[in-house]
Each structure stands twice: as C-alpha cells, then as structure tokens.
UniProtKB/TrEMBL annotation:
Gene source species: Stieleria marina
Keyword line: ATP-binding, Cytoplasm, Ligase, Nucleotide-binding
This protein's encoding gene: glnII
Boundaries of every GS catalytic domain copy: 84-341
Keyword RNA-binding on entry: no
Class in the EC hierarchy, top level: ligase
Lineage of the organism: Bacteria, Pseudomonadati, Planctomycetota, Planctomycetia, Pirellulales
Function: Catalyzes the ATP-dependent biosynthesis of glutamine from glutamate and ammonia.
Chemical reaction(s) catalysed: L-glutamate + NH4(+) + ATP = L-glutamine + ADP + phosphate + H(+)
Protein name: Glutamine synthetase
Enzyme Commission number(s): 6.3.1.2
Location(s) in or outside the cell: Cytoplasm
Residue intervals of the GS beta-grasp domain: 4-86
Subunit structure: Homooctamer and homotetramer.
Gene Ontology MF term list: ATP binding; glutamine synthetase activity
Length: 341
C-alpha cells in the first residue's frame, strides 16, 4: 500500500482578486486520474466563501498532475468550489465556461514581477531610486539586466516536470518582470494549467524568500504593466480563410467593452492607458500586428490565408483565466458571421 499526498488547490472568495488556497489529503494507492480523486471539503468561513454557521464548501477535482516536490507519491489537484448541495459556488469562474467540446483553444501569456520582500520593490531595483530606464531588460541576458533567473528557471522546470504545457519563457520589459506561456486545446484545461502554474510559481518564490506580484501596474511611472494576453481560436478562426470573418468576430467585441474589462483584472485601468503597448481601457480597436490595439491579428494568421488565431491584449496579469476565457467565448459565439461560414 502506497500513501499518496494529494495537494488540493482552489480559489478563495476574496475580492476583487481571488487568491490560491491549498491543503494536503493523504490517500492510499492513488491512480493519478482525476476521476479517482475524492470530493473533499473545507472551511469556507475562513476564505470568504461561507458563513460560520454553515461553513462547509466542497472541492470538486477537475485537473490532476504530478507534484514535482513530492515525485512518485504526490499530486496537484486543481478543484472547483461547490456548495454543499453540489451546485457551482458563486466564486467558481470555471463553471461559467461554455466549451464542453473543446472547440476553443487558448494560449495565455502570463506576465508577473518577482517581488523583493525586504525592499518591497521588484527584484533588482535599488532600495532607493530606480534602475536604468526600460530598454535593455526585455529578453535580456547578463548581470544587472536579467534578474531572478534562478527562480524563473526552477519554475519552468517544475512545470515541465509535472506535465504542464508551458511553451516558453522570457524576461519582460521591466527589470524583475518575466513571462511564461501556456497553451491548451480546451478553455477549461487552459485555465486549470494557468492556475496550477501560478501555484508552483508562488511556491518557488516562497523558497527564495521572495513573492510574486500579479498586479497589472506594479510600479507607477514609465514602466510597462503586467498582462495575461489571451491568444484564442475556434474551428472557424482556424479554418475560415476569410478576412471578413475575422473582422466580424473582432467587431463583436466592441459593444462589450465593459463585460470584458469587468473580468480582465482589478486595477487594470492603471495599465490600459494607451501607453506601453496598450489601448485605453474604455476604447476598442483591432489591427494586424498592432500591439497597441485591444485585439491584435497576428501576422502569422494573415500569412496563412486568414487561418489562425486572435490575441486579446487587455487581460491583466491578475485576471482569472477562467473568467477571461468565458467572456471571450461568449463574445465570439455572438458574432454575426458572413453568410456561408
């Protein structure tokens, strides 16, 4: 009999930005399959998800991978939060996604800032004043430019080790700011993987005495903010071969600015200013290869004969990928497509 350690991970009820929570359950001879992970419960009164007099909330496993810190006997179990009667909890963004056939594919570009707990500033920033202006840090190498690489590399390896589909990493425009990309066929799975990867990143930073800052504008002034660009496609976008169809889908987003911004992350107005490769928060635009637009049409999509994907550049680094995917799917499905598509 093998004792296995299952780390149950869920999102709490804190607003405007939910946090990750986790606790360990020991079971015997776990198969590694999500259907064999039992439903568990937790004290919702301690996570802003239930009153003290009726505090039980349920954890419904939806995604399982190996826990790289407990190889052989450990697993990470991403969960949806449910009410005691088995209904989706009001804080359960995953349950709002309508993509049961995995028609939608998502690639999230998750930016973040490694935060020095002692200086309360990004790693690499001096205790007083500022480093040299932006320019040398993006995709950089070398002391004084690429700062915190040991944390980034360790996180990268852990994600690959446990089977997350991380497709790349790079240093970002601000010192101490980095990015990784995760892709999945299926919106729910993409969200699951982003949340598990965030959990792993928090755990690595914890080991080094650092923290992860997910805020969209961690440093005020002439510094880039942090986003979670959402690259998305469905069968129509992947195969239509029609500029008219792409434009119809992009245009469906314009009357829904508020619906998207409402779930694209708290304090995103500090980042979406029209500067630093962003469109203003209350405006909408799209364009080929335009990183200052709300939605960028990648040049690769055009070169492939209008077959590919779109990139919504507005989601902030602290946004819930479940809610981002849900909003995008609803809008794409509402588009009035040309006849015959």
């Amino acid at each position: 009999m093998t004792k296995c350690k299952l780390e149950y991970i869920w999102l709490d009820g804190y607003q405007p930005t939910q946090s990750l929570r986790s606790k360990t359950k020991v079971v015997s001879d776990f198969s590694g399959k999500v259907e064999d992970a039992p439903v568990w419960c937790f004290d919702g009164s301690s996570t802003e998800q239930a009153p003290g007099g009726s505090s039980d909330c349920l954890l419904k496993p939806v995604f399982v991978c190996e826990d790289p810190a407990r190889l052989g006997t450990g697993f990470l179990v991403m969960c949806e939060v449910m009410t005691p009667d088995g209904e989706a909890h009001r804080t359960n963004g995953r349950a709002t996604i309508i993509d049961d056939d995995n028609d939608f594919w998502f690639g999230f570009e998750q930016e973040y800032t490694i935060w020095d707990s002692e200086t309360n500033r990004p790693i690499g920033f001096p205790a007083e004043g500022f480093p040299a202006p932006q320019g040398p840090y993006y995709c950089s190498v070398g002391s004084g430019k690429a700062v915190g690489r040991e944390i980034v590399e360790e996180h990268f390896e852990l994600c690959l080790e446990c089977g997350l589909n991380v497709e790349g990493i790079n240093a970002e425009v601000m010192m101490g700011q980095w990015e990784y990309q995760i892709f999945s066929k299926g919106a729910k799975n993409a969200g699951d993987q982003i949340w598990v990867s965030r959990y792993l990143l928090e755990r690595v930073a914890e080991k080094y005495g650092m923290s992860i800052n997910w805020e969209p504008k961690p440093v005020a002034g002439d510094w880039n903010g942090s986003g979670m660009h959402a690259n998305f496609s469905n069968e129509t976008l992947r195969s239509c071969g029609s500029q008219e169809t792409y434009e119809a889908i992009c245009q469906a987003f314009e009357p829904r600015i508020k619906e998207h911004i409402d779930v694209y992350g708290a304090d995103n107005h500090q980042r979406l200013t029209g500067l630093h490769e962003t469109q203003e928060i209350d405006k909408f635009s799209y364009g080929v290869s335009d990183r200052g637009a709300s939605i960028r049409i990648p040049i690769g999509t055009v070169e492939a004969g209008w077959k590919g994907w779109l990139e919504d550049r507005r989601p902030a680094s602290n946004a819930d990928p479940y809610m981002v995917a849900s909003a995008i799917i609803n809008t794409v499905k509402s588009a009035k497509l040309p006849a015959g598509v």
